[in-house]
Amino acid sequence: MKFLAQWFFRATMLPVVQLLYRVRRTGVGFVPREGGVLLLSNHVSYLDSFIIYLTSPRPVRFVVLEHYVNKVKSIGWFLKLFGAIPIRPQHAKEAISRTVDALNEGDVVCLFPEGSLSRTGVLGELKKGFQLIARKADCPVVPVYMDGLWGSIFSFERGRYFRKRPNGCTCPLQVAFGRPIAGKEATPESVKQGIQEASIEAFSKRRSLDEPIEKALIRGLKRKRRQPFLVEYAKSGPRVWTRGYTLGLATAMARRWMNDSPDQSESERIGILLPPGPMTVTINYGLTLAGKIPVNLPFTIDQRETEAVARAIAPLGIRTVITSRAFMSHLTDFWHGDDGTFIDMKSVVTGSGPGIMLMERIRAFIEPTWLTSWRLDLKERKNDREAVGLVRRPGDDPVLLNANQLHRNALQVSSAHFVQQDEVVFSEQSLSSPGGLTIGCWSPAFSKGRVVSRSFSLQEDFDTMECAILDQGATIVVGTARFFSSIDQPLSISSLRYGIIFGRANQWNLEDKEETLDIPLARAWDLDGRVVSMSRTDPNIEERPHHAVQIGRLPKSVGRLLPGIAAKLEDGQMFLRFEPVGDPTRGPESSKVWVEGPREAEIDAEGFLILRNADLKAD
After folding, report:
1. 3-state secondary structure string, 452-480?
2. Are the beta carbons of 390 and 309 closer than 8 angstroms?
3. pTM of this prediction?
4. Residues 85 and 99: beta-carbon distance below 8 Å
5. DSSP 211
6. Longest CA pairwise span in the chain (Å)
7. How close are the terminal C-alpha atoms of the chain, in Å?
8. Between the CA atoms of 420, 424, 425 and 428, what dihedral angle is there, to the nearest 10 degrees?
9. How far apart are the C-alpha atoms of 393 and 406, rounded to whole Å?
């Protein structure tokens, strides 16, 4: 009778789950067809058990706290129906024995090794109980990662469970089963790495990554098109660019560069030498829509530094740089006698003429995404095409990202709780840095966020910054340690949740700076042109004492890895992997590349990355 009930549940619920969650799964062939198997998965929502049961190729039993089986009625009936193994923390030996017996009988058993729901959206500490179970049962351990549930009402996204409006009618979900680990080799470190590698595969299956980044940009800016998007505070007051207005300027610029390009060179790469702000962001969008490759350069007018920038980009074949007419007199020796062109930023944006600009602004509000994409001939754009370049500091080697890498990193930043979908970010980070490019340019375009800044001439003015944060209700301030060190007054503004620091930071100075600014500070880290790890404030629930305390940040750490990134240590050196390998069960592996990271690094039990300052970029 129980078998019929299980079959009926699977037959009726799987279509419903597929409709609501549009589930994609990969690596199913890694789950052995027979014998005991221990599944170890990340844990972010109250739906996790349902999803794993419905996506697993074999029936699954779950090891859960007795509290959830007997007292949480919303899932207790399901756990009882499918033979859940209830455990009590005070009786650990009994729990281990019952789980081992189930595995020895040939069942597939699922454990959530974190021991509780994640309230940060990323993988936390793995408890060691599974290690003893795997060794005693001597069965394969299959890491599992579920991506996408963090945005559901059943997760702690937006700081609460259940009591919130859904983000949409559907919640696309990706589930990846990883490569099996022998039971006697399963350790917290090897399993965490396995889950992280599965997260790369799951994240790469997101439907939003199927379409070209240009089409995703158009779709994102057409959403809430009347909503303020880029706000810059100048001496004359705030300049507000709505999402629709920004898209209109970008498409007008793209049409001009596609039909009558002011760039006379044959290179697809165009340098951008401008301070951060709405104009710089829009030029990045416009060049991308035109099929060009914006290469963001560190803004400087120092002659030695501009010469170092010129040497860095010489191998890229860049013969055109967009800058401001006001700075051109400082760049006379930039090309070292070679043929090269500077283009004034205003002529780039307005050069298409007032008629086309007005028409594109109207179309941005009334035209569907598919029509705009058709007019710009985006159908043939490839996800693996070169999309953007960065030169972080004068003299640094350029970093080039393809469209998929740029798109994926922009989504990773907002896929956990570090930067929310509707975040109002105050950022003056250069777009030549990964943090500035991702958080201050691309990530807000794909979500519902807003970016606030000061004009270049007012970037040392505290009153203007305070006014901008207060007026716009900014929730996060992003910058380098140098930026935060320049602020010597408190930012006691109720809307601010915390500040995010990229690059080097001394933990003791950080604590002193928190007292000065009167806001929490969380660290972040980037490598190889992408944001790798971030921190946030502690996400605890005071009114629910049975929830375990979770930590969102450590002053000595640069944070936890973003979803879809894996790390490993070999003799103290860190290696990182960003790229998926596909499903190896269907063919040979490809693109399995581990990128060299810092030479002296640690990853603690909670998953926090601890690096020496010498291994971090100084901005």
Report:
1. EEECHHHCCCHHHHHHHHHHHCCCEEEEE
2. no
3. 0.89
4. yes
5. S
6. 85
7. 66
8. 160
9. 20
What's the confidence (pLDDT) of residue 547?
66
Residue that is written with structure tokens 């990340």 in the block: 42
Residues 6+ apart with CB under 8 A from 587: none
Within 291-402, residue ranges assigned H as helices are 303-313, 345-350, 354-366, 369-375
Supply the Cα-derived Rg of the chain in whole angstroms.
25
Residue 471 per-residue DSSP state:
H
Q: Is the pLDDT of residue 314 over 80?
A: yes
Between CA 398 and CA 528 the distance in angstroms is: 10
**Which H or E element spans position 614?**
none
Residue 303: predicted pLDDT: 81
DSSP-derived letter for residue 226 is T
For 371, other C-beta atoms within 10 Å of its C-beta total 12
Within 8 A by CB and 6+ apart from 444, the residues are: 229, 423, 425, 450, 451
Mean local confidence (pLDDT), 38-59: 88
| Encoded amino acid at 387, one letter | A
In this structure, are strands 608-611 and 559-561 parallel, antiparallel, or unpaired? antiparallel
Place of tokens 């490809």: 590
DSSP string computed for 231-270? EEEETTEEEEEEHHHHHHHHHHHHHHHHHS-S--SS-SEE
pLDDT of residue 75: 64
- The mean pLDDT value of the chain amounts to 85
pLDDT of residue 584: 45
